[in-house]
């Protein structure tokens, strides 16, 4: 029993010594050897600095038109449904127009009467003027005759050939003729004035009747609803058989969207808005097409801020081409990358090659034997995927992108 007890501690001591030896030769060796797992060459390329943000797809101004009517009546025909494609100028709905057509016929009759009255004025007054002028001409002729008679009789009375009574009678006839000529002249003037007045009234009546008829025609046109733009029907607010009652406002019945006229608004944080300017390229994706990268360009930045969740944003406007717009939908959320800076033809290395060692950036250059040597190059612009190298690394050098660094645990390796 004592012998067995002595053997067990000896075995434990041997095992402990073996564990210590393994740690010393294996773990210690690992901690002093740089192991390169993956490399990449330093090459000439481009570097782009991108600003990440979110955006939303919106219709452009005028891309959504709410089509309605000012007519009151029953929907006789509804020719479209939600999702239908329509072309500008195509009839999309019809309202019962019997009441409007009755009113049109009444106004049409009133126009005919006004035109007849105008024709009558132009027909009768020239005759009246001719008659009045003829009467005046007769009166003037009589006045002249009586005047000449009065003058002759005056001479005859002066010579004693004619008695004074004949002269008095001649004078009386002249006065009567002159008075009649004056009255006939006034009558002609009144006929002329009445002609002008009645002609103006008749013309105005025709114009008013034509306006009333045109208005009645417009009222009929309200009963026929045509597509104002080419696009897709996005909403239908009423169906056949329902009654439209209009008041002071136009009743909106059908909404049409032009799917080719969309734009994107990017929400740029107030801390980043200073780096964004018009003309910057934009790449973006949507959840509906996660593997498709859409492209655009910043057109303008709105001056007024938008506050969401107590964060201040400024909206950058990105117009979309018709081809891009047709693949998207209003109110879609986008994940955007605004390329704020881009340089070409510079020496670059992958961002994975940059390692932090003792709070400093290092790059490990790998030689032909696979040995890695740390260097501290001069870095330039750091982009989304790679970084510009200004000096310290030559074109064609291979750099380690995945490496196990001495005294650095695997958690810091890539």
UniProtKB/TrEMBL annotation:
Entry keyword Magnesium: no
Which superkingdom is the protein from?
Answer: Bacteria
GO molecular function terms listed in the Swiss-Prot or TrEMBL record:
transmembrane transporter activity
Name the residues that span the membrane.
7-26
- May I have one GO cellular component term? cell envelope
Gene3D superfamilies annotated for this entry?
2.40.30.170, 2.40.420.20, 2.40.50.100, Helix hairpin bin
The record's principal subcellular location, in a coarse class, is: other
Q: Which intervals hold domain CusB-like beta-barrel? A: 267-338
Q: Which InterPro entries match?
A: Beta-barrel_RND_2, MdtA-like_BSH, RND_pump_MFP, UPF0194_transport
The similarity comment for this entry is: Belongs to the membrane fusion protein (MFP) (TC 8.A.1) family.
**What protein am I looking at?**
HlyD family secretion protein
